Amino acid sequence: MGQRPRILVIKLSALGDFVLSLGAFQAIRAHHPEAELVLLTSRPFEGLARASGLFDEVWLDAKPPLSNLPAVLALRRRLRGGRFARVYDLQRSDRTGWYFRLLWPDPPEWVGKVAGCSHRYTGMAESPKHIVEREAEQLAVAGIAGVPPIDLSFARADVSGLGLPERHALLVPGCSAHVPAKRWPPERYAALAKALAAGGTTPLLIGTAAERAEIEAIAAACPEAVSLLGRTSLEQLATLAGEAQLAVGNDTGPAHLIAAAGCPTLMLFSAASDPRAAPRGPRVASLRRDSLADLSLEEVLAALAGL
């Protein structure tokens, strides 16, 4: 029996994009059922990638500066040593374009946007498209027809230690710290938390240290809310999403994960958000305002009723 072909998939960031790429991962695995599939990704997504069962190996990319010659040469040795028959570059960045060049003069088949690759996707310059649609077009260049809906059924983890109530909702008041315009004001989240609690649903506040101030302010205004600040892995968050009544979040990675896990999700967008990265899931809605300060609690409650 011949050696199994080795296939590399590259997806480095960010969480929302990683979640939206799960359908593409699943399509690649279905297209190469006998291959050894290797993912090159970033550390925050390692657990989710391993839990998916789609990959035989998960490699972590430290993303060294290209000026760091020893680190770049070490990465080149590793990529060359992988002896990959094909690479799917789902990051499609200038950095991963350099990875292609590191493999010269005999690069493997490469499915990406970089000039000179064997399966070049040239649709990047076309009108804006959602990442799921763009990746479906990219994979079609390599003969993969169709990308399935995102399936997060594999992402299950024990949440019993969190001591949570049976009826709960997820609130995600944070987002990238460098784009504060994406955040609905914390006092509006606090008012929403109070409304949910009054209706018998416990608000669970989701976030990391970057959202500490917002989450603490919401918890102080609504004592019934439960702060899960820094207490949930991505797999635990997906599990909570599968059990939650609903979720409301800003344009941020955890909200994308929650929506993909099947939770009825309302995502709030400002002019700082890119509509090409809207969440995907079975029950998803969104509200858009140039400034989220102009979005009222009443509008959010009405949209949740529609979900």
TrEMBL record:
GO molecular function: ADP-heptose-lipopolysaccharide heptosyltransferase activity
Keyword Transferase: yes
InterPro entries, sorted: Glyco_trans_9 (IPR002201), LPS_LOS_Heptosyltrfase (IPR051199)
GO biological process, one term: lipopolysaccharide core region biosynthetic process
Gene Ontology CC: one annotated term: cytosol
One Pfam family hit: Glyco_transf_9
Organism: Tistlia consotensis USBA 355
Keyword flag Transferase: yes
Keywords: Glycosyltransferase, Transferase
Protein name stated in the entry: ADP-heptose:LPS heptosyltransferase
